[in-house]
Amino acid sequence: KTAPDGTETVSAHPARFSPEDKFSKYRVIIKKRFGVLPTQKAKTWRRIVRQKIRASVPRPVLTYQQWAKRRLVISFILFFIGWKAFGVTLSDMVLWTVDENSGEGRFVTPVEGRERRLESERARNRRLRNTQSLPQFDFDD
What are the UniProt keywords, alphabetically (predicted)? Predict the structure, then answer.
């Protein structure tokens, strides 16, 4: 390369194995002789050992993505089953009643449902219970 004034320039970052750099020539000789530069030996051995360890450990059966997808599908299925079971339980035990006179089954009307709920709340809470008024006597004020 040439500078704007016409002089030849030298790259600040020469090629790794450039023929004009004497240290590059030495590195090429060492690499041809030993196969690896001394600074790279530790990295190479580390890479080889890690590959052996990785090859000896069994691979996981599922990836995280597959595991998450299966978990999502199973969660949805269990939610659906629970929703149906809750609906069946609610309709069979709470909303369905058998008439004592005719023996026929029928759904509870909203008014009857409110009355049942109010009765159960009265049975639990003393303040909601009806206090029976005492009979009136002749000499009461």
Answer: Membrane, Ribonucleoprotein, Ribosome biogenesis, rRNA processing, Transmembrane, Transmembrane helix
